[in-house]
């Protein structure tokens, strides 16, 4: 559906995207994820035709759009600052694209009503000015405005970043449901790992303008291809080599080993453990209630290991409790000195 092939984007003498290639399938929710400044927005703007590319090709539905102006690419766009027109009513904001396309008034009215309904904007709110809506409502207007022209592709750049934490979570679900309902191929830019993991069919993790890994949320989280991806997504402990003496299946020779917080079990010292487990005695240095899980910091032979224990575990919550940390070797992610999975 969308193919970016060896796309290069430079600002002056600085190359921000060196040879960027990407393929997105029809109907997919595809996310560009990476730290600030890694080039996510630049990649999206190049795809949208808002930033010129130095070389390379961009294909949409098999058609070369590399030199096509943005408004000819049939894209819907939602940006971080919404880019709504403050002096227009909500109704006129949503209908703007159709008006520009000179569609009949009757059709615009019907389409605006349907789009508003799909994002829970009421008839009464349609008559208001943009500034009379909350941030969350404005966000939904921006989405309705992008969807009203029934684009085949929807580009979103950090569309939820101005919302508070609770609303963000709700909007994630709503966006995802809308995306399915409209069947629109979506490219989503975020630096928020949770957002990317919970919404995407596939994720491209970017690092300094290059794609470090493309995969399903499970792939990038549980089978991170590089040390950088492993550290960027989720929380990890680096495991000291001396913890791994018994774990004969794990690679050696300078390899670096990581385990996610939730893959570290905490249990009473000297209890039964599954055969082959990595077991290290330690002392609880900190334990804190976090709602669905308890966060631990365990002092193990001079190293601090963190664990997130889900469920109603209360046995070892006191500072100073003598415990064992237990890790299944298959949950350990190992990388060579060059940061490649081994
Ligand atoms: N118009 C511009 N002129 C010069 N440099 C730019 C321009 N736009 C972006 N850059 C630079 O290009 C790099 C990538 O920026 P980009 O906005 O694509 O990153 P990002 O991953 O989207 O970051 P963020 O999450 O902070 O938005 C940054 O180093 C940025 O400073």
TrEMBL record:
Question: Which keywords are on file for this protein?
Answer: ATP-binding, Nucleotide-binding, Transport
Q: Which Pfam family, an example, fits this chain? A: ABC_tran
* Domain ABC transporter, chain residue ranges per copy: 2-233
Q: What would be one Gene Ontology cellular-component term for the protein?
A: ATP-binding cassette (ABC) transporter complex
**What domain of life does the UniProt record list for this protein's source?**
Bacteria
Check the record and name the InterPro entries matching this protein.
AAA+_ATPase, ABC_SmlMolc_Importer, ABC_transporter-like_ATP-bd, ABC_transporter-like_CS, Mo/tungstate-bd_C_term_dom, P-loop_NTPase
SMART domains to which the protein is assigned, alphabetical: AAA
The record's listing under Gene3D superfamilies reads: P-loop containing nucleotide triphosphate hydrolases (3.40.50.300)
Tagged with keyword Ligase: no
- Gene Ontology molecular functions: ABC-type transporter activity; ATP binding; ATP hydrolysis activity
- Stated name of the protein: Iron(III) transport system ATP-binding protein
Q: Which organism is it from?
A: Falsarthrobacter nasiphocae
């Amino acid at each position: 559906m969308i193919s970016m092939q060896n796309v290069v984007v430079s600002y002056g003498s600085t190359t921000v995207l060196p040879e960027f290639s990407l393929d997105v399938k029809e109907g997919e929710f595809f996310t560009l994820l990476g730290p600030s400044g890694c080039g996510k927005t630049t990649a999206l703007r190049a795809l949208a035709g808002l930033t010129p590319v130095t070389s390379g090709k961009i294909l949409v539905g098999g058609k070369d759009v590399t030199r096509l102006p943005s408004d000819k690419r049939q894209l819907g766009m939602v940006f971080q600052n919404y880019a709504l027109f403050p002096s227009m009513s909500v109704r006129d904001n949503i209908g703007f694209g159709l008006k520009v396309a000179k569609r009949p008034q009757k059709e615009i009215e019907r389409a605006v009503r349907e789009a508003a309904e799909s994002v829970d904007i009421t008839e009464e709110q349609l008559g208001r000015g943009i500034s009379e809506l909350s941030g969350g409502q404005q966000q939904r207007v921006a989405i309705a405005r992008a969807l009203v022209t029934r684009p085949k592709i929807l580009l979103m750049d950090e569309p939820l970043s101005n919302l508070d934490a609770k609303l963000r979570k709700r909007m994630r679900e709503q966006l995802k449901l809308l995306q399915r309902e409209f069947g629109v191929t979506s490219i989503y830019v975020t630096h928020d790992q949770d957002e990317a993991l919970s919404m995407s069919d596939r994720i491209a993790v970017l690092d300094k303008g290059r794609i470090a890994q493309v995969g399903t949320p499970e792939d990038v989280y549980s089978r991170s291809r590089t040390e950088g991806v492993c550290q960027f997504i989720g929380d990890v402990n680096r495991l000291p080599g001396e913890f791994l003496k018994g774990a004969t299946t794990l690679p050696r020779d300078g390899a670096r080993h990581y385990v996610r917080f939730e893959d570290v079990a905490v249990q009473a010292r000297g209890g039964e453990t599954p055969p082959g487990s990595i077991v290290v005695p330690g002392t609880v240095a900190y334990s804190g209630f976090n709602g669905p899980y308890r966060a631990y910091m365990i002092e193990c032979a001079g190293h601090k290991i963190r664990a997130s224990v889900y469920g109603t575990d209360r046995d070892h919550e006191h500072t100073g409790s003598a415990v064992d940390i237990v890790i299944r070797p298959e949950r350990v992610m190992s990388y060579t000195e060059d940061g490649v999975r081994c």
